[in-house]
């Protein structure tokens, strides 16, 4: 890279703390190279398939980086609907497990927990979500006349990125953190453990609405608390595949609007721990 900068006579990266951030020249160069590589890829694809350029509508490939929990629990089960609506767009899904956002130049669209603050990027908040507690229905069925006060009798699964305190306080229960049992670092694995009947888990409502509708999980109480992190969708301004990006963004908004609403929780009690203007009796926006 240093040799290339010497040949060009201009820096392509600058150091910001421990990170190397592209300069404006470096960003433009990376984008032009990316466009060129994409065109080469399409040319080789046409050569392999024997399809002449312009013989049929070209397919656009869109690289999308998505947080693993959102991808596994919500996006992937809906991809067939996107393909049916947009047969000319192929999505390449790249999973992202870290809380920190990756290099925003590495993909066409990023669905991450962090905003992209760099100049030349568009960032949109995906939705206003909230956190609830869920478990297998069989767990609450074992306790006669179950109320939210009985939630503390259930095994409480631990998540490294969220404590139980806020939920317990909103439920009117002593804020005692569980001290035994496995600790999950991934929200998707936490939910798999809950679906397997291993205990009560706190989770974003969007991730479990399908499981609740299918009867695999039930919401315990009507307690809703704010998440510590949001989902943001980011892409570069004036992207060469901008139409495909907007189609994907609009489709996500439509799917979120069509996601099944939550029913009332089992053993109702507690109170929504959210700003009053942002929820009704069941925390729906």
Notable traits:
5-stranded mixed β-sheet, alpha/beta, single chain, 285 residues, 3-stranded antiparallel β-sheet, 33% helix, D-Maltodextrin-Binding Protein, domain 2, elongated
Could you characterize the architecture of this molecule?
It contains nine helices and twelve strands. It is of the alpha/beta class and 285 residues long. Among the domains are: 50 residues; 100 residues, D-Maltodextrin-Binding Protein, domain 2. The N and C termini lie far apart (49 Å).
Please summarize what this structure is.
The protein has helices at 2-8, 24-49, 68-75, 79-85, 137-141, 165-170, 187-195, 205-213, 242-258, and strands at 13-16, 19-22, 60-67, 89-96, 109-112, 121-125, 131-135, 158-159, 183-184, 201-204, 218-219, 232-236. With 285 residues, it is of the alpha/beta class. Among the domains are: 1-50; 130-229, 3-Layer(aba) Sandwich (D-Maltodextrin-Binding Protein, domain 2), CATH 3.40.190.10.
Topology of helices and strands:
Blueprint: H1 2-8, E1 13-16, E2 19-22, H2 24-49, E3 60-67, H3 68-75, H4 79-85, E4 89-96, E5 109-112, E6 121-125, E7 131-135, H5 137-141, E8 158-159, H6 165-170, E9 183-184, H7 187-195, E10 201-204, H8 205-213, E11 218-219, E12 232-236, H9 242-258
Helix pairs in contact: 3-8
Family: Belongs to the LysR transcriptional regulatory family.
Pfam families: LysR_substrate
GO molecular function, one term: DNA-binding transcription factor activity
